[in-house]
Structures are given as C-alpha cells and as structure tokens.
Design goal:
This is Heme oxygenase. Helix content is about 65%, strand content about 0%. By secondary structure, it is mainly alpha-helical.
C-alpha cells in the first residue's frame, strides 16, 4: 500500500472533522471569512517554518514555491484584520513526519480551491487560490508515492497532529465570534 493510501485511510476521520468544522464558516461574509483566515494563520506559518527547519527542501526542492503564509498574511492585511497569536510550531522528526505534514498542507490547497468559489470577488483570496507550477499537486503525490518511507506510522502521526491543530485553531476562532 502506498504512503498516500495509508495517509488517506488513517487520517480520513481527522480530515472529515476538519472539513465539517471549516464548512461552518460562511466565506461569503467578510467577518466569518476573516475568522476563517485567522484560524489558518495560527497554524500555517508555524507549520511551514517547522517543515523548513526540519529540512523539507531535501524532499521537495520546490518547497519555497509551495509555502502560503505570505499569501495568508497579505489577505489578512488587505481585510484590515490582525494576525492572531500563533500556535507553537509542531515538531517534525524524520522524513516520514515531513511527508505526513506536507500531505495535510498540500491537501488543504485542494480544499482551498473549492472554498475559494464561496469567497466574493470583492474579498482577497490569494491564500485559497495560490498560483504555482501547473501540476504541483501531482508532482507532490508522485514524490509521496515514491518516498519509500519505512515508518508510515510516523507519517500518520504527524498528519493527525497537524489536522488536530487545524481543529483547535478553528474552534478557538469560532469561540471568539459573537
């Protein structure tokens, strides 16, 4: 079974929870969209930095083009909103953990592309519609499948931990909404 298949199967419950929670945000309403972006801003920069510090560029030479924190910051700034307090950066130890975490971040781009359709044209959506190399997700999936990771449990653990951070961030931001 490929690492992608293992990750998909063993994180499906987490993925469903995150989709359900973030599906409650009405992205057509500016205030809810800002809340949605703040939730992501609690995690994305810390996760990207942690991946970079752990050497993700060895696995994905195009990593700098895959980062989205700056797009997220730009959207939040354009909306006149504040950046939230970041969650502590996750720790990613070993190649398997890097693959698991990037699996979540790259998958969120696919979800973002679907969610971007709900964002009115008058609101910025660079974060949800990043411009990158055509076929970048396929390139990632091919590399993931060819990774030869011998510890899929570590990949699953890292992916589940990142999904959990998304859940916590979403819940925290929703609690602050009047």
């Amino acid at each position: 079974m490929s690492l992608r298949s293992v990750l998909r199967a063993q994180t499906a419950d987490c993925h469903a929870q995150v989709d359900k929670l973030f599906g409650t945000f009405d992205l057509s309403r500016k205030e809810q969209y800002k809340t949605f972006l703040r939730a992501h801003a609690r995690i994305i920069p810390a996760a990207e930095n942690a991946l970079e510090e752990a050497g993700v560029v060895r696995l994905l030479p195009d990593w700098p083009e895959r980062r989205r924190a700056q797009l997220l910051f730009a959207d939040i700034g354009e909306l006149g909103d504040r950046l939230p307090e970041l969650f502590p950066p996750p720790a990613f130890h070993g190649e398997a953990a890097l693959w698991g975490a990037v699996y979540v971040l790259e998958g969120s781009k696919l979800g973002g592309a679907l969610l971007a359709k709900s964002v009115p044209d008058r609101l910025p959506s660079r974060y949800l519609t990043p411009q990158g190399e055509r076929g970048a997700i396929r390139i990632f999936m091919d590399r993931l499948d060819a990774s030869g990771v011998d510890d899929p449990a570590a990949a699953v653990s890292a992916a589940r931990a990142l999904f959990d951070l998304f859940l916590k961030a979403g819940e925290l931001e929703l609690e602050a909404v009047p």
